Each structure stands twice: as structure tokens, then as C-alpha cells.
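Pasting as-is:
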Amino acid sequence: MSQAKRILIANRGEIAIRIARAVNELGHTSVGLWTDNELHAKHLGYCQEWVNLKGSGHGETYLNVDQIISIAKENNIDAVHPGYGFLAENAHFAEQLINNGIIFIGPHADAIRKMGDKAVSKKIAEEAGLPVIPGSVGEIETPAEALQIAIEIGYPVLLKAVAGGGGRGMRVCRNESEINKYFEVVKREAAAAFGNDGVLVEKYIMNPRHIEVQVLLDGNGNSFHFFERECSVQRRHQKIIEEAPSPFVGEDEELRQKICSEALRLAQAVGYDSAGTVEFIMGEDRAFYFLEMNTRIQVEHTITEEITGIDLIVCMIQIALKENLGIPSQEWITRSGHAIECRICAEDPVTYAPAPGKVTGFETSFPQGTRFDNALFKGLEVTPDFDPMVGKLVVKGITRQVAIRKMKAALNGILLEGLKNNIPLHLVIMDHPKFAAGEYSTNFIAEEKPEQLINTEVDFLNIYQQLACIEAFSLRL
């Protein structure tokens, strides 16, 4: 191991806690950040030092490249881990750190830039021999271009932002009138969300499955995959439930090896040198197509860690610091059991609208095999300033059926008082026949409307029983 380093965590909440734990485990010094509206931020309790980010709003704080680099220089920081979101996929930030003699814990800036542009990444994937969704080669300028491509590849088609992500800047078009209707809408959304109004058009895959592969490359010729994850339970193109392995891939080991090999091929083609995720769309016929590459650690990395037993954040740090990963070969990486993650969000479970508020009570009582990555505490004020996700509930079972059973028990074991949240939605989905059978696509929520099955009446008896059980459990400890 190299000499102990001072590592700045340019993030907040549960991912900052997750990174701090990895930094501390490796014997380095974890340095956290906080803003004036996060005076009691839980992640600071896991950091050995912390520094104030001055200003208000994202632009002045967690997205402020100049201020974060100044903080890093003033505090003798050796390396920066960006987590996910904020500056995690900002090539300029990565370059500026390197230019100032600070290590960026992530891939090199050129990979971030290329994979962050959907048109460029699609071209790289094609040149590497990956299957890609039929559509425009690059940006299209007019509705007329989109119409011509739609005629060639057939409807429905998807208009999407070149620099998009998180489900923003996307519209499905089933005919000419919808292309004319949505083209400028997508451009406006893209410009507002990403500062780039470029638009692509591609074939829309019916009843698709969202399958992604976790990869890890050390920049020295060693490359590994950690199998696939299924992320098809989405609302408004944003993931809320993920599981590993994919129930759709199932026992088809030939398909599993094929999609994982293709993911590594793309990462190698761009000279990748960190943890990353290659995402695919898989049709009903099990044909799959490259979607995009996320050049960062993802929210759902947890379920991959659970089935493989490998700490991906630790690996990212080791790669950045030029340390040996200690992974002899791909064959050494094995998987066992089944893991599911539910994103716990401060939002209305029926309308999906963000629901900021104050946590007036927080207790948990979980079954064996449960992991809850969170930054919750009694008194926490969840504001509209940040993403509504407040925690990631993860369970592992010997089989998928056992994992579902454990997840229901774990969801019922969370008492989150004062904060409207989507736990009732997760419970309905866990009990849904199509989810239980693994027979769902990215259209699941739109078609099945599980939110309509939520009982909106307050069950005081159940709440009192939960409180009594949690109190009894605490007394036994």
C-alpha cells in the first residue's frame, strides 16, 4: 500500500458516508464538505476532517469547480472522489484537478468526455463492434431529418438529448405528428438540463429490459466485469428498484457472458481506467443494444457488491493511487445469491412528486442480510435543494424469492416519521405478480400503475405495532 493520502469527498449524504468508510478502511484521511444548510449533516460524522463549502445552491457549492479545487489546494488534498451526480462526470473538473497536481478518483477526462456524449459514445460502440440501436449517427438539426430516419428504421422512435441522463430530454414518437410536436420540446429540455440542446433519434425497443454491466479496469491492461444488474423498474425513466443478477437473463449463462464481454470491449476501446457501468437495452427476443456508459460509480453498485463480495469504492481508490487490486483473474470473481435494492425517496408514493420535509422519527429493525445506505436522522430537514433519494435499502437472499421476502420485511422495518416517502410503493411492487415472476419491462409502472394499489389510509395499529417491535428489539440490545 502507498503512503496515506488526504482524500476529499466532493459529495454529500449516503454516498459521502460510503466513500468515507472506504477511505478510512484503507488508512487514508477522509475530508468531507458541508454547506451552510447542512450544519448537522450525517456524513461529516464519518469523515476525519471537514471543510465548509461557501455559497447557496448547487452552482455555488457542490458544482463549483473553482471553489472545490481551491479547498483541495488549501487543505493539501492528494485525491478527490466525486461519488455520483454533481461533478462525477464532469471532464473539465477531472482535468483541472490533474492540472493542479491532484488525483481524480475516476476515469481519465477523455473517457468521461467521450462517453458523456451519446452521439460520440454510440460511434465508439459501433467501431468496437457492439450492437447499437438503429438511428441517427450523430445529432440531427431538424424535425425533417428525424422524420426521414423514422421512415428508414420504422416507428416508434425515441427523441433523446445527446447529453441526457436521468430520463430528462426524452420523448417516444409513434408517428410524424408526434415528431413535429416533440422535437423542439426535447431540444428545450436538453438545453435547460444539460446546457446542450443536441438531439438524437433512434428506434424505440418495445417492452425493453434495462440491463447494465459493472466493469473495472486498472489502466494497466487488467479488466474485469462483475456481472449484470437489472434496472427495469423505473418511473419517468428513473430507476427505483434494481436487482442482481437479472431475472430476465436468468440461467442463460451464454447470454450473460456475451453481454459482459461486450461491456468490457467498449471500456477497453476507450482506454477506461476506473469503475464504470455499460448499459444496454434488451428486447423481448433477448437481443441487446448499447445504450450508454456511466463513467462513475452508480447508485446501485451496492447490489453488485452484495453478490460478489467486492468493495467497488475501495477498488476505485486503489486504481487511482496505482495500487494492486489483488484480483488474480476474471475467473476469481464469482457471484452468489440474489440482491435487490429499493431507492427510498422523499416523494409522494402515488404522484411521485418530491415531498421535502422534516424527519420527526427514524427507527429500523431489519432481517438478516439487510444493508441500508442512508444519511437519515431524527431532525433531518430534507430540502428541495437536493435529489429526493434519502437512502438505499439493499437485501441479499440465497434465491430471488428469499430476497423478495427479506425486502418486504426490511421495508416494513423502517419507521420514517414526518417524511412522506415511497416505501408503500415498494411494498406494492414486491407483492405484484409480474414483479414476483420477474416478468416486467421498463414499462412496468406505466402499464401496471402500482401506485393505484397503495392504501392511502393511515394504519395506526400497524404503526404502533412497528414502534413496539422496534422498542422491544432495542431493549434486547
